[in-house]
Amino acid sequence: MSAPQAQVQRSDFDQLMVPNYSPAAFIPVRGQGSRVWDQSGRELVDFAGGIAVNSLGHCHPALVGALTEQANKIWHVSNVFTNEPALRLAQKLIGATFAERVFFANSGAEANEAALKLARRYAHDVYGPEKFEIISMVNSFHGRTLFTVNVGGQAKYSDGFGPKVQGITHIPFNDLDALKAAISDKTCAVILEPVQGESGVLPADKAYLEGVRKLCDDNGALLIFDEVQSGFGRTGHLYAYQHYGVTPDILSSAKSLGGGFPIGAMLTTAKIAEHLVVGTHGTTYGGNPLACAVSGAAFDVINTPEVLEGVRAKHERFKARLEKIGQEYGIFTQVRGLGLLIGAVLSDAWKGKAKDVFNAAEKEGVMVLQAGPDVVRFAPSLVIADADIDEGLDRLERAVAKLTRG
């Protein structure tokens, strides 16, 4: 028998943890599908999805089965050896995308770190050491390592950590003229999110992405799509680039990729990949059998017409109701996004108050997210039942009614 578990409560967080988070007042302890229960047994509808991670909700039988089966075989061998789940998952990702080569990591930041290092190494080898500049977007988000946080276009995350990584330019998103003015023969890569996630769930325009692709080609620059948040079924396509019909040179994936188990992946072509020769980049845990087994099982469920079409249908269900709530209570001016990555933009009277909506929603038993202070974000399970959508939105409406009408 295992020893009894120590009692813990939310107040312990402030005594034990580095204070870089400010989590909600309750502690979730159990989940099933799109429902979550806290320590007191209170049930909540989960529209947060662990920040677009829990792509099949909580305790999906396919994922629990894959993890349990693999846990009884082999957990970890490192990349001194290879393993079957990693190779099977790589086959699946290559079969379903533009990619010919895969690099596995443990997170979105690591996938982006690999993508950016590869772009610089490729340009260095093919064009010479002068071609190292990276163009990124204002308000973008690419992770928290020193390199990725500097590439991300939000000073509040990158300031105060010493000298900045050199050779990074930030320009406005969805603005082709800005890219025309910034790109040059010194540019090694342009990186962007097809749907800007953290800064407010902003989808790119198709014509813009087509123009970016052409400018990259004309200037010998690689195009990197950060699909950490928009990828792996989230938009109703396996990857958002497929929705737009614009193919990148390098793509980063994480979040939904593991269905809740930490994993990241960088996808690229064979021609580009050959510049990361043995010893140039690595990770101890990346591609571990547990993560890859779970991700492979998630792939088999998600990359099906039923689920991907369902994501698009569920988008419309969310959007119609959120727009109705927005109009009735004067709280949202716009509902935007793709698939089940949705942002409800707060009206002028409620600008800056996304946290208030988050808190009010929690009190009514529904978990939502913010995307900056002015947008309420929804990133639920890709297979969330329509009944759970309706119930969660009923609860959200009650929260909004209390918030707006006192």
Automatic annotation (TrEMBL):
- Which Gene Ontology cellular component terms are annotated? cytoplasm
The gene name reads: aruC
What cofactor does this one take? pyridoxal 5'-phosphate
State whether keyword Lipid biosynthesis applies. no
Q: Which residues carry this modification: N6-(pyridoxal phosphate)lysine?
A: 255
- Say which enzyme class the record assigns: transferase
Q: What is this protein called?
A: Acetylornithine aminotransferase
> Keyword Amino-acid biosynthesis on this protein?
yes
- Give the domain of life: Bacteria
Q: How does it assemble?
A: Homodimer.
Which terms under GO biological process does the entry name? L-arginine biosynthetic process
